[in-house]
Amino acid sequence: MNSRQFSKLVSYLSKNYQIYATQEENGQVVIDELHDAKKAVLDNRLPFYSWKRFFVPECESLFEYDGVSLTPSSREQGKQTVLLGINFVDLKSIILYDRVFAADTYYQSRRNNLLIIAHNFLPGPENNLAHVEYKEENLKQYSFDVFLAAQENSVIGHKKTEIEYRVFAGSEKGEKVLRESGYKDYQRIECLGLLSEDRSGSAMNVFRDKLTNHHNPKIWEELGRRCIECGKCTIVCPTCFCFRLDDTPSLEVGQGQRQRCWDACFYQEFSEVAGPSTGSTGSPQAGSGQAPKFLKTTAEKIHFWYYHKFARIPDEHSITGCVGCHRCYQVCPVGIDIKKVLEDVYNS
Ligand code: SF4
Ligand code: SF4
After folding, report:
1. Domain that includes residue 141, residue range
2. Contact, 270 vs 242, CB < 8 A?
3. Running DSSP on this structure, what letter comes out for residue 19?
4. Which of 8, 146, 210, 301 is exposed most, by the fewest CB atoms within 10 A?
């Protein structure tokens, strides 16, 4: 697919879908509504924020209540949405959302309205994602509708020349938009979203072991002294999807709605539960006035964050809870670098 054919595809999509795409704004790549195909940026730079909010919104209403009667909030029936420019790195996080929210009807209604157009990136002088391996033969393990595989020599760094793509349709929906937009030279593959990482003998297995059975408290105590619990890393992380439930009363007595909103394990109330407080021995301290918490210190919180990504998620979902995007380091005000932490864990 060349740039003229790409413009034709975008023009077809704009008549039938709302399109969000990666675009450049003040030297940064952001995700915004697309009105002109030429503004789409499909290169080796990641958008500052990931695509998470399209799959798991920052806040969503689950149901409204009026006394004891509950009315489910209306599911999104609006215009279908195209997500154009999901890079190969962030594509992995979609497999995780699909597994975690497999039985969640709110997620499923939203997901059915999305058409995913993903792409790879090529080695270049400004490619800081060289550690992420792209293999065309593995594409069917991911989940997308259309995949644009940029061909060698068509991108240099993030300077676009004439970009040529090999095109894959990963679903019936993807095949339909390609066909209806007049593009025929695509390869149909059946995307199964079955990516499963074999950890035996790998570094990931070592992380899992060191984060569970042989965890070295000194690493987390040192990080706990630096971390200020701002939660920025969780906001930008594509694989942080933890949430809290808020009841928001309206002005009418007994009425309101329950919302599901992003939360972060670094925040004070994240692991707080109702009941008598527990002391350092774990025994209840009735009348202390403080609710019990599972994560009390910053060291415990930061250890939990790594444990969740590199031990619990892989155990439950067969893939690592980290796509290697490095966004958490870019936003951390105290410079905690996930690569360095993992090196320390590995060598501990
Ligand atoms: S590198 Fe950091 S921000 Fe990116 S997925 Fe891993 S933990 Fe999340
Ligand atoms: S961004 Fe850095 S300081 Fe803030 S919570 Fe995350 S690790 Fe801690």
Report:
1. 3-188
2. yes
3. E
4. 8
Q: Report yes or no on whether pTM surpasses 0.85.
A: yes
In a domain, 102, yes or no: yes
Q: Are residues 223 and 338 in the same domain?
A: yes
Residue-level pLDDT at 147: 96
CA-to-CA separations, 82 to 3, 236, 244, 266, 327, in angstroms, rounded: 18, 21, 28, 33, 24
With H, G, I as helix, E, B as strand and everything else as coil, classify residue 177. helix
Q: 219 and 295 in contact (C-beta within 8 Å)?
A: no
Closest atom of ligand 2 to 328 CA is: 1
**pLDDT tens digits, one per residue of 47-63:** 999 999 999 999 999 99
Q: Which ligand is nearest to the CA of 323?
A: 1
Give the position, in ligand 1's atom list, of the atom nearest the Cα of 233.
Answer: 3
Inter-residue contact 291 to 275 (CB < 8 Å): yes
- In the block, which residue shows the tokens 């594409």? 139
7 domain residue, yes or no: yes
Residues with CB under 6 A from ligand 1: 236-239, 309, 322-328, 338
Cβ-contact 148, 165 below 8 angstroms = yes
Say if residue 179 is in the same domain as residue 213: no
